[in-house]
Amino acid sequence: MDFTKPETVLNLQNIRDELVKMENSIIFKFIERSNFPTCPSIYDPKHSNLSIPNFEGSFLDWAILQLEIAHSQLRRFESPDETPFFPDKILKPILPSIEYPQILAKYSSEVNYNNKIKRIYIDEIVPLISKYSGDQAENFGSVATRDIELLQSLSRRIHFGKFVAEAKFQNNVELYTDLIKRKDVDGIMKNITNSAVEEKILERLTTKAEVYGVDPTDKEGERKITPEYLVKIYKEIVIPITKEVEVEYLLRRLE
Ligand SMILES: C=C(O[C@@H]1C=C(C(=O)O)C=C[C@H]1O)C(=O)O
Q1: How far is residue 230's CA from residue 244's CA, in Å, rounded to a whole number?
Q2: Among the CATH numbers 1.20.1530.20, 1.10.590.10, 1.10.260.40, 3.40.630.10, which is that of 6-251?
Q3: In ligand 1, which atom is closest to the CA atom of 193?
């Protein structure tokens, strides 16, 4: 897939191959995060010991913003497959613009699910994959670093739904034009859903997770990340939000 060559990007098989490649990185990042406890303090915007001068938000929010300010100047968010968590605060690149060809609709950067991804990550994923519940102050920096790596990978995977949606639209303009004109959200959701592909993803995830050794050691009282947890995260969070991205992108496609 080459973002300077639209035909390589809007090929549904190429997109699916890219989503498979992302699984490995996401699994390894989950394993890394599972070595730490939940560390709820880093997600608390009003935490007395972690407040940052002149910044409204949690320690994690502040860390994500600092990284995005740096990476935006390295041109990270010019790439059509990168979606910032703080789109209003990033800076212009210092490097010259690459001028990627327009692959997605002009409004595509407005389809940004990162706030939802972050909220669900904190509320549902962290409690599931962490070693135990509680703070570990000496690791607040490491945990924030692991969280940012994971959130960026989950964001890229989920927002890939825009490329999937554009490819599906171009493969069946008449069908989607009719559904969009009638604002048939259920009809769009039904038509973008491919249960066979979803099933294959979940089966492969189980195998990969077992191979990569997420099977837990028997340490007393420690929560464990298991293949079942990884499948549950994909089945109940990653895939459904990817489809929400597809539907929202398509609903505006005739603008
Ligand atoms: C990504 C696609 O669209 C949908 C979402 C999927 C996912 O998030 O894994 C898989 C299949 C589809 O239901 C696709 O068709 O490949």
Answers
A1: 20
A2: 1.10.590.10
A3: 13
